[in-house]
Amino acid sequence: MMHAWVLPMLIVLSGSAVATGQVFSGSPCGAAALLLAFLALASVNSPLIFPRSIGAQEAQRRSLVDGRPVVFWRPGCKYCIRLRIRLGRSARKLHWVTIWSDPAGAAAVRAVNDGNETVPTVVVAGQPHTNPHPEWVRERARARRPRNPAAPRGRGR
Fold it and tell me: Which residues have a Cβ under 8 Å from the Cβ of 105 and sit 6 or more positions away?
């Protein structure tokens, strides 16, 4: 879990250094604005915004069971951030795989994007879609497969 905080912490430290330079050069208002911008950037790259990532194999296994899409992403990607923010609460229904920390996920993305690590790549029912529209992804997250009718539905009476 600590690895997920490395990029946001580096962004905050960089922002603090830049803001300190602005304060010493006599621009405290500029320093405050820059620090706020760096904090916003760090927050959208933090685990607070993105759901916890899992491995590609586990995500694909879970997707087969529950029908939820798998999203391959990487920290710092503006298109991934856009997708996550536009999905809102629906993002928690998806299986997220960070390609920077999962070699199998990176390989899966390269396999469907002509050798490029183009993200976000969303896999729905085994079909990859590169940088799809967030509304389309939201609809796929809602349209999960029905449960197996043979599976138990709850407590028997």
Answer: 55, 56, 59, 72, 97, 98, 99
